[in-house]
Design brief:
17% of the residues lie in helices and 35% in strands. The chain is an alpha+beta fold and 230 residues long. It folds into two domains: 6-92, Ribosomal Protein L25, Chain P (Beta Barrel); 99-180, RNA Polymerase Alpha Subunit, Chain A, domain 2 (Beta Complex), CATH 2.170.120.20. Strands 1-3-2-6-5-4 form a six-stranded mixed β-barrel. The protein has a three-stranded mixed sheet with strand order 9-7-10, with no helix packed on it. The longest helix has 19 residues, at 185-203.
């Protein structure tokens, strides 16, 4: 089954730096039934696709003059200073074999405990490790927080409605999200005092004074002899 998301690639035409200057990104495809192959993809097309697909949506990598491959984006390398993409790893999967992935959780709805009781929404986890066939792997998993009506309840893994064909081996009793009571005025005041004390302790630290070379009472510089008094 082919993915509705398709990215065109071609064999590498030169050195990685030259490829990047041309507006493309160097990449490699490897995985099931294929020898590692160096390719390049158009930068703008990849950015647009990556925004929607992320790491958990299967896509079709169509190599010019070659075959179409069902792949997942396995790794995206970013330049540490320029924040540009320097390299991409595509992993080819077997369509009839389940894979595991950490899928982002998307919290939807409105919690009465937050809206009516001014509670503080707390997320214990932001992603859930699941298992599914490549075609069934979701881009994200929705978690409805409207069941959080007071400060006693919580949403657990077992409360999440997983898409068809998707399972998880995570502890079903693990808490995913909850709502904490708002801080009292006394707690806020105490917190403010703690912050104030920390700031004052930092501001109170003074660097040791170092006598300037040549000043009265200053020690001679290392490696220099004092002139003998005649």
């Amino acid at each position: 089954m082919a993915s509705s998301l398709t990215l065109v690639a071609k064999g590498r035409s030169g050195h990685s730096s030259a490829i990047r200057r041309s507006g493309n990104i160097p990449a490699v495809i490897y995985g099931y039934g294929i020898d590692p192959q160096n390719v390049e993809v158009e930068s703008r097309q990849f950015h647009k696709l990556f925004t929607g697909a992320g790491y958990t949506t299967m896509l079709t990598l169509s190599i010019e003059g070659g075959e179409d491959h069902p792949v997942f984006i396995r790794e995206v390398q970013i330049h540490p200073l320029k924040s540009t993409i320097t390299h991409i790893d595509f992993y080819k999967v077997r369509m009839d074999e389940a894979i595991s992935a950490k899928v982002p959780l998307k919290f939807v709805g409105e919690s009465p405990a937050v809206k009516l009781l001014s509670g503080i929404f707390v997320r214990n986890i932001d992603e859930l490790e699941v298992e599914a066939l490549p075609k069934d792997m979701p881009h994200d998993i929705e978690v409805d927080i409207s069941s959080l009506v007071d400060f006693e309840g919580a949403i657990h893994v077992k409360d999440i409605k997983l898409p068809v064909g998707v399972i998880t081996h995570v502890d079903l009793d693990e808490a995913v999200a909850l709502v904490q009571p708002p801080r009292s005025e006394a707690e806020l005041e105490a917190l403010s005092e703690e912050v104030k004390e920390d700031v004052e302790s930092v501001e109170g630290v003074k660097k040791p004074e170092v006598a300037e070379e040549g000043a009265e009472g200053a020690a001679p510089a290392e490696g220099k002899d004092e002139k003998k008094k005649e």
